[in-house]
Amino acid sequence: MKNLGFILLLLTLCACALTPEQQAARAAAEARQQRALEIHLTAQCDTRAADLMQQADSAQAVGDTAALEKIMSDYRRQIDHPQFRNCHRLAWENYYHQRRIDALERREAMRDMNEWMMWHRPVFCRNVVIDGRIYRDCR
């Protein structure tokens, strides 16, 4: 009987595991989101560089190596300026700190909700008699 419970638990865990196709799809989606974020942050500093990034992605998808080489050389020339590098670094820092602020706000909201729940208990209470003593049971 113990083995049956263990086997059922094991089967349940195996059924919940991702297949290699699902893992690959998830990784591809994460890579697309990361690339879209990079393009968005680059566009804040230089729209031409962001356009070149998008063109490089489309040329790479098509497999046009000559066009990709030209686009990448233009892109390297575009991002080589110190002003662009500083702007891009500041854009990444701004994005990182905004994510941290959002996380702190969510944590603060959760803490406020927990404090409220601590003092404003639900009114689903009943009196329970155990061994002649009356206890208040609130759930």
Nearest-angstrom radius of gyration?
Answer: 28 Å
Order of helices and strands: HHHHHEE
Number of strands: 2
Q: Estimate the mean pLDDT confidence.
A: 85
Mass-distribution shape: elongated
Describe the fold and architecture.
The protein is mainly α and 139 residues long. 79% of the residues lie in helices and 9% in strands. It is elongated and about 90 Å long. The two termini are 34 Å apart. The mean pLDDT is 85.
Short description:
By secondary structure, the chain is mainly alpha-helical.
How do the helices and strands line up, and which of them pair or pack?
Blueprint: H1 2-16, H2 20-45, H3 47-62, H4 65-79, H5 82-119, E1 125-130, E2 133-138
Antiparallel strand pairs: 1-2
